[in-house]
């Protein structure tokens, strides 16, 4: 049988008829996928404790004080915010207010966001390429190891991914009818994604805009005008909060952590913007120049591992990031190129090609930025790649399968299967002591499936369906095993990685190279129950976070995350002490560049305290009672 055109791809007008005639197995299969995803993400949730104590302390502060909730303050006394906008904290703090603040209630919204992202991805892919493609895409996302990590973690990335997938779904709906409403919803989703993780939210925008501009079923100027509507919705949904922070009197809100001028916009363009891209200029907040702790030039191989490795085209496949999300990346890239070629003669409004532009743009732009950015980057950032990989894979596999009568389509599918098996063999070889037989099972199974796809996939019947299912099973076996291992192993700390191969945290805390430097139990007894605005102050957030979570007390993190922010100034701190707003200064338990403790406001405050107050030892830390001068 020879096919000379591409009639298999449904037009936007025909897609509703296709959905109405979907097989009976679709709903049970979707329910099974979402149930399995929920079990995977909810199993043992909270068993690792507070995961990232920095964000956990801020979420707890939001349950104690509404101003802290609104601004994402690290402490209920509202000294300084975390170094990200607060949207993810809003959700976790609301869950804590409703159900009581525990590790489980804090992480519950994150896990449910994962289930929601899988459901939305299924819906978006199904609309262009059918339910089988949607199920493949949803399954790939659910089983991506870094997704299994971050949808059980309290970093902002879970909400970011959910909002980005929602924006893509709304764009798919907008492309079908050129609907302004759907495009405005996509803009709103991107705007709130900006309030989750700032400029990273915009990496998917080129793919979304290109797909609509090419395929929406109206004239060019109408397409451009409706894109402007979506852009306006984005600006409004993100800008209202930027305006709120800018107009709110600075003395009655916390300092914007990570910024150099107490500005949310500067935080977006600086620490969370250009500094992430170009990498020079030193830490935010006026600290001493140099890389972040463990970054390029940091503490040896461990720093390089937890900070993404060297920039370049191979970073997504390297030792740091390879096992997070790249298991099916080679197959997705092959499938993207082949399916774009397959749809080259389709109508401008073809739904399949539009979706390939959308998800392919998402994948390529995000991967390129992550590969070549020279600033701070962590392996878990790759969770933002997972929906793009999953969608491209689901669409390309199903579209190529539909034309499997063509030899070249079978060869492409076989190449995708073989490449997946070989790459899984390489990745699993990085942890040779962990399930050593799996790498050989996956390699041999994928190669056999590749041969069978070439030889017999053009036939019809149950045998061919079993063959296709087998290829999918072998392709997903390695990332699925990694995802299960990730769920089964407690992960915590400010930087964590999926799977069995690395330490589970970078920084103080269980598994982190810094460890706990003081006896928190003794300090907790000291600060608990204090009526001051801040029971204590310390340089940086690490010890402060632990004490807040253990006691519920308000602890000032001088200088923010690692102590480099210029807040509070020495004059402000002296006023706090004079007004009895802060009781103790704890000198110990620091983590991060040593210069942050001796430079800027943190250094000035430390020197002033040592000159005017008497030290005592508490649990291995040097403590100064700021109500008892020397």
Please describe the structure with a list of short key phrases separated by commas or semicolons.
glycosyltransferase, mainly alpha, transmembrane helix, cell membrane, RgtA/B/C-like, five-stranded mixed sheet, 2 domains, transmembrane, 630 residues
Task: Note down, in words, how this protein is organized.
The protein has 630 residues and is mainly α. The chain has two domains: 12-485, no CATH class; 520-629. The chain is 59% helix and 5% strand. It has 25 helices and five strands. The chain has helices spanning 12-20, 26-42, 53-64, 66-71, 87-99, 103-129, 131-143, 145-150, 157-177, 180-197, 205-215, 220-247, 264-278, 300-306, 322-325, 329-342, 351-372, 386-402, 407-428, 436-456, 462-488, 520-527, 542-551, 570-578, 600-612, and strands at 534-539, 555-558, 582-587, 613-618, 621-629. Strands 2-1-3-5-4 form a five-stranded mixed β-sheet, sandwiched between helices. α11 (205-215) runs antiparallel to α17 (351-372) and α17 (351-372) packs antiparallel against α18 (386-402). The radius of gyration is 26 Å and the shape is elongated. The model is unreliable at 1-19, 281-300 and 509-516 (pLDDT under 50).
């Amino acid at each position: 049988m020879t096919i000379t055109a591409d009639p298999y791809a449904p037009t936007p007008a025909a897609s509703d008829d296709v959905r109405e005639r979907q097989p009976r197995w679709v709903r049970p299969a979707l329910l099974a996928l979402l149930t399995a995803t929920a079990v995977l993400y909810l199993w043992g949730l909270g068993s690792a404790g507070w995961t990232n104590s920095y964000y956990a302390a801020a979420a707890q502060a939001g349950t104690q004080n509404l101003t802290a909730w609104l601004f994402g303050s690290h402490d209920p006394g509202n000294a300084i915010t975390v170094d990200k906008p607060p949207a993810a904290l809003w959700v976790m703090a609301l869950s804590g207010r409703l159900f009581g603040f525990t590790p489980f209630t804090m992480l519950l919204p994150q896990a449910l966001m994962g289930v929601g992202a899988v459901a939305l991805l299924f819906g978006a892919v199904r609309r262009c390429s059918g339910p089988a493609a949607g199920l493949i895409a949803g399954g790939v996302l659910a089983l991506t190891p870094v997704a299994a990590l971050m949808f059980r973690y309290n970093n902002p990335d879970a909400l970011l991914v959910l909002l980005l997938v929602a924006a893509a779904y709304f764009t798919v709906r907008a492309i079908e009818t050129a609907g302004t409403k759907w495009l405005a919803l996509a803009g709103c989703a991107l705007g709130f994604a900006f309030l989750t993780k700032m400029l990273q939210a915009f990496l998917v925008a080129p793919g979304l805009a290109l797909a609509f501009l090419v395929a929406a079923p109206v004239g060019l100027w109408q397409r451009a005008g409706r894109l402007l509507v979506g852009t306006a919705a984005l600006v409004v949904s993100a800008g209202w909060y930027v305006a709120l922070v800018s107009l709110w009197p600075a003395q009655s809100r916390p300092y914007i952590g990570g910024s150099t001028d107490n500005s949310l916009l500067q935080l977006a363009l600086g620490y969370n913007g250009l500094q992430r891209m170009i990498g020079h200029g030193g830490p935010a907040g006026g600290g001493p120049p140099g890389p972040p702790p463990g970054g390029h030039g940091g503490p040896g191989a461990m720093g390089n591992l937890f900070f993404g490795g060297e920039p370049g085209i191979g970073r997504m496949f390297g030792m740091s990031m390879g096992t997070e999300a790249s298991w099916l990346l080679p197959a997705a890239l092959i499938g993207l190129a082949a399916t774009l070629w397959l749809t080259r003669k389709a109508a401008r409004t073809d739904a399949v090609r539009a979706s390939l532009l959308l998800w392919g743009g998402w994948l390529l732009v995000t991967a390129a930025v992550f590969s070549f950015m020279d600033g701070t980057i962590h392996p878990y950032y790759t969770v933002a790649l997972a929906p793009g990989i999953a969608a491209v894979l689901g669409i390309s596999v199903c579209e190529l399968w539909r034309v499997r009568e063509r030899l070249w389509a079978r060869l492409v599918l076989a190449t995708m299967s073989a490449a997946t098996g070989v790459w899984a063999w390489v990745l699993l070889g990085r942890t040779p002591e962990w399930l050593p037989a799996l790498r050989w099972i996956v390699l041999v199974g994928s190669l056999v499936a590749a041969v069978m796809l070439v030889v017999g996939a053009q036939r019809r019947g149950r045998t061919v369906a079993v063959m296709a299912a087998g290829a999918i099973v072998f392709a997903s076996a390695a990332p699925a095993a990694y995802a299960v291992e990730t769920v089964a192993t407690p992960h915590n700390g400010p930087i964590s990685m999926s799977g069995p191969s690395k330490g589970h945290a970078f920084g103080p805390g269980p598994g982190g190279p810094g460890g706990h430097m003081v006896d928190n139990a003794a300090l907790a007894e000291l600060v608990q129950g204090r009526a001051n605005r801040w029971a204590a102050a310390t340089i940086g957030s690490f010890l402060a976070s632990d004490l807040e979570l253990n006691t519920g007390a308000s602890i000032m993190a001088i200088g923010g995350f690692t102590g480099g922010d210029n807040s509070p100034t020495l004059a402000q701190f002296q006023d706090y002490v004079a007004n009895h707003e802060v009781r103790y200064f704890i000198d110990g338990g620091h983590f991060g560049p040593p210069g942050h403790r001796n430079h800027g406001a943190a250094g000035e405050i430390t020197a002033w305290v040592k000159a005017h107050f008497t030290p005592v030892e508490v649990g291995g830390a040097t403590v100064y009672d700021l109500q008892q001068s020397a």
